[in-house]
Amino acid sequence: MLNEHFKGLSIISSLLVISGLILMFSSISFATAIGDSWVLNQEDGVADTSRYNMIVETYINNFVITGSILFSAGLLIAIFTYFTSVLFGK
Predict the structure, then answer these.
(1) Tens digits of per-residue pLDDT, 24-48?
(2) For residue 46, is it within any domain?
(3) Is residue 5, in this structure, part of any structural domain at all?
């Protein structure tokens, strides 16, 4: 039963690490796409350039922070799983 928990935690930690890395490294693409959709939703599809840049930078920061949190959580779960298996695994 303990091995099943280790396997499940290993899968969860791998998914968290991978999704965190994807969010961190693809944040520019995601933020630009969301910023472009924001411009299209404005009146006549026109918006101030500085405001557009501010919105894109904000989305980039949001994706990087979210990706970092997921990556860190996955890494901590992986470390916890490893040390638990070393200490209690038989």
Answers:
(1) 999 999 999 999 999 999 888 788 8
(2) yes
(3) no
Nearest in space to 57 (alpha carbons), one of 39, 37, 30, 19 = 30
Predicted confidence (pLDDT) at residue 90 exceeds the cutoff of 70? no
Question: Under 8 Å CB-to-CB from 60, ≥6 apart: which residues?
Answer: 27, 28, 31
Give the C-alpha distances (Å, rounded to integers) separating 16 from 9, 28, 30. 10, 20, 18
pTM: 0.86
In a domain, 3, yes or no: no
> Three-state DSSP class for 78?
helix
Task: Please calculate the CA angle 76-66-78 and round it to the nearest 5 degrees.
Answer: 15
Domain of 77 in residue numbering reads as 16-88
Q: 6 lies in a domain?
A: no
Quote the radius of gyration of the chain (alpha carbons, Å): 19
